[in-house]
Amino acid sequence: MISSLCIAGYQPHDSTPHRERLRRLDEQLNLARLEPEDLYRPELSIALGAAHLGILLRQMTSPHLALAAYNGGEREAVSWRKYCFGGEAEEYYAKIGSEKTRDYVRRVLTAQAQYAELYP
């Protein structure tokens, strides 16, 4: 079973990055103080995951970069971008240093393309 925490990109057992991400979302979304246990509430964790992705999509230069930042971390996503010579999405995709994140970006963008084809 896929938990809402996985869907939202949060892992409560990973305390340091997790707490930092929650702290930033607290500040950016002006929410009451959040604790890692709060993410076991699907209605909250999915909403926070969507808000976090929305923030990244506004901050990053491309959807590929935002998806990589969402899954693999913002610092890593920016560092992979430094190894690109041009601005092509395919080059960035090839430079993603984590197989897990590369697969995540591929799966999300494939699903997006399929959805766009079904619902133009």
Describe this structure in words.
With 120 residues, the chain is an all-alpha fold. Helix content is 69%, strand content 0%. The protein is built from seven helices and no strands. The N and C termini lie far apart (31 Å). The chain folds into two domains: 1-59, no CATH class; 61-120, no CATH class. The model is unreliable at 1-13 (pLDDT under 50). The protein is globular and about 40 Å long.
Helical run tally: 7
Largest sheet, if any?
none
The assembly state of the depicted protein chains is single chain
Q: How many E strands?
A: 0
Low-confidence stretches: 1-13
Q: How far from one another are the termini?
A: 31 Å
What average pLDDT do the residues reach? 80
Helix content: 55-70%
Radius of gyration: 15 Å
Shape: globular
SSE order, one letter for each helix or strand: HHHHHHH
The chain-level structural class is mainly alpha
Topology:
Blueprint: H1 4-8, H2 15-29, H3 42-59, H4 63-72, H5 74-81, H6 89-95, H7 99-118
Helix pairs in contact: 3-4, 4-5, 4-7
Concise account of the structure shown:
Helix content is 69%, strand content 0%. The protein has helices at 4-8, 15-29, 42-59, 63-72, 74-81, 89-95, 99-118. Mean pLDDT is 80; it is low at 1-13.
Give short descriptive properties of this protein.
mainly alpha; 120 residues; single chain; globular
